């Protein structure tokens, strides 16, 4: 894990923007602004698909999989879709164990940026789990995940942007901003659905974990916008909703949430700051909220950078100091070191596995492309929230949204998540804010009802905490989260 002057880089599950500076003044009014890079894309500048080099109509193969790659107890296959002449996106598709032609489809994206989605497949929502941290061989390498999301949906797991995981980009063609990556995502969707339309007749959802809170809202907003504008190459399938998992949406609210997490009794008493520290954090919260409001209003990288820096230096730094001493992990503050997230590398770098996945020549698989991650992190766009996309999808796109967060996650805090969506500007903001947090339950295999966390919301927006879970909450609390997602999908008015 890489530590900088302030903040930290998150691996695999997500990302916190790295803001590097030799010294950062506490008074952000005097902070010297940096000029925008010439290749910055604003939310108002929509890329044209016609310039994307679409590979529509180009041949691409699928490769049926079996227990040697994943003991799935379901039909599954892999493939690589050419989205341009220089880029291919790798996917793993699993049919629902229930009724593949009548169940919905969920597309899953891990974060990074530039992290593979295969940890999500093998450690969180997929049909199989790695055995002995990926050290096993053949059919002994994985075992069935009884709590997989494929129990109630088809699951499509995508490595993106190109250059991440098993997806490839020749030369310097890898996308380095959301504005570039959304084009490839759109081409992939169009290609996949044209090949397999039968899986998209009964609901389609896009899930994004951690930095997926930037991916999913932006990609889906662009897709839905094309549909509403009746663009000639618009995606032909209705997207019913998005699922945001420990999601990095505005990048500031989660830091403001440190006060509630470490200075109040609302959350588990695993770490409590002293009164002096809590008083300092409390004094900084109003200013952080004001700067966040400016960022949300302007969506200017400079304004958002000021807000991020202020929150990091005046709020987040106290927990960051504890992390730097080796006492806690930001991704699961019940541990002093982050749980390993690279077990997929052992399994997926085996030549025999890669051959089964469809690769003629072995290639090096990495769970995170750190070089590409660093380039994304340098873009001004990295500081700009996707809040507007979320609001637009609720009001204009008419989508449903489920948000949930592990209570042990200090990188994307649960109280920060509730704050963020209480303040989300949309038509039902007041109605959402006044809703109480209620207990939500799930039923285990013995028929026992278990408390899963707290939830609040209205039919179009549900926001929940997940007990006994951290940054990769679907993997930490598999049966609970699987039950939550299933209830939400199957009950449109679920609350």
Flag low-confidence runs: 1-56
The string of secondary-structure elements, in order, is EEEEHEEEEHEHEHHHHHHHHEHHEEEHH
The amount of helix comes to: 25-40%
Write out the CATH superfamily name of the largest domain. Answer: Alpha/Beta hydrolase fold, catalytic domain
GO molecular function, one term: serine-type carboxypeptidase activity
GO biological process, one term: proteolysis
Organism: Xylaria flabelliformis
Keywords: Carboxypeptidase, Glycoprotein, Hydrolase, Protease, Signal
Explained architecture:
The longest helix is centred in the middle third of the chain and has 24 residues, at 275-298. The protein folds into two domains: 49-251 and 343-370 and 383-490, Rossmann fold; 254-341, Helix Hairpins, CATH 1.10.287. The protein is an alpha/beta fold and 495 residues long. The strands form two sheets. Strands 1, 2, 3, 4, 7, 8, 9, 10, 11, 12, 13 and 14 form a twelve-stranded mixed sheet that branches. The chain is globular and about 60 Å long. The chain contains 15 helices and 14 strands. Helix 2 crosses helix 3, helix 3 packs across helix 11 (387-395) and helix 6 (275-298) runs antiparallel to helix 7 (301-324). The chain is 33% helix and 15% strand.
């Amino acid at each position: 894990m890489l530590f900088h002057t302030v903040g930290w880089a998150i691996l695999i599950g997500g990302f916190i923007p790295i803001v590097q500076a030799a010294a950062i003044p506490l008074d952000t009014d005097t902070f010297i602004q940096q000029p925008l890079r010439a290749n910055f894309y604003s939310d108002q500048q929509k890329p044209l698909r016609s310039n994307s080099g679409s590979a529509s109509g180009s041949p691409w193969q699928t490769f049926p999989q079996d227990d040697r790659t994943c003991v799935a107890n379901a039909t599954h296959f892999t493939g690589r879709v050419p989205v341009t002449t220089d880029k291919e996106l790798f996917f793993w598709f699993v049919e629902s164990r229930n009724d593949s032609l009548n169940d919905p489809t969920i597309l899953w994206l891990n974060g990074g940026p530039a992290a593979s989605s295969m940890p999500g497949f093998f450690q969180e929502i997929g049909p199989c789990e790695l055995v002995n941290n990926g050290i096993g061989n053949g059919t002994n390498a994985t075992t069935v995940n009884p709590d997989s999301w494929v129990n109630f949906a088809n699951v499509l797991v995508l490595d993106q942007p190109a250059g991440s995981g098993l997806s490839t980009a020749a030369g310097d063609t890898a996308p380095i901003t959301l504005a570039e990556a959304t084009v490839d995502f759109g081409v992939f969707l169009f290609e996949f659905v044209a090949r397999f339309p039968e899986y998209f007749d009964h609901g389609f959802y896009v899930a994004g974990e951690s930095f997926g809170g930037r991916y999913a809202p932006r990609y889906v907003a662009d897709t839905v916008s094309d549909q509403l504008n009746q663009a000639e190459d618009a995606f032909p399938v209705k997207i019913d909703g998005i699922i945001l998992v420990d999601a990095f949406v505005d990048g500031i609210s989660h830091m403001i949430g440190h006060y509630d997490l470490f200075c109040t009794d609302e959350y588990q008493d695993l770490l409590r700051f002293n009164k002096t520290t809590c008083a300092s954090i409390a004094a900084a919260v109003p200013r952080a909220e004001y700067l966040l409001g400016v960022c949300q209003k302007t969506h200017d990288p400079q304004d958002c950078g000021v807000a991020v820096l202020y929150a990091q230096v005046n709020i987040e730094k106290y927990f960051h100091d504890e992390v730097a001493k080796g006492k806690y992990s930001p991704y699961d503050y019940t541990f002093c070191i982050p749980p390993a997230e690279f077990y997929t590398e052992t399994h997926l770098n085996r030549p025999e596995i890669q051959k089964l996945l469809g690769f003629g020549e072995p290639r090096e698989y990495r769970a995170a492309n750190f070089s590409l991650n660093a380039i994304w992190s340098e873009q001004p766009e990295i500081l700009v929230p996707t809040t507007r996309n979320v609001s637009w999808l609720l009001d204009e796109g008419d989508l449903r949204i489920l948000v949930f967060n592990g209570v042990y996650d200090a990188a994307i805090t649960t109280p920060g998540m509730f704050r963020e969506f209480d303040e989300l500007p949309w038509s039902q903001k007041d109605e959402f804010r006044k809703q109480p947090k209620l207990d939500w339950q799930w039923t285990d295999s013995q028929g026992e009802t278990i408390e899963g966390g707290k939830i609040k919301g209205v039919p179009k927006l549900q926001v929940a905490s997940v007990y006994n879970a951290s940054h990769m909450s679907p993997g930490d609390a598999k049966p609970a989260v699987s039950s939550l997602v299933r209830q939400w999908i199957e009950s449109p008015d679920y609350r």
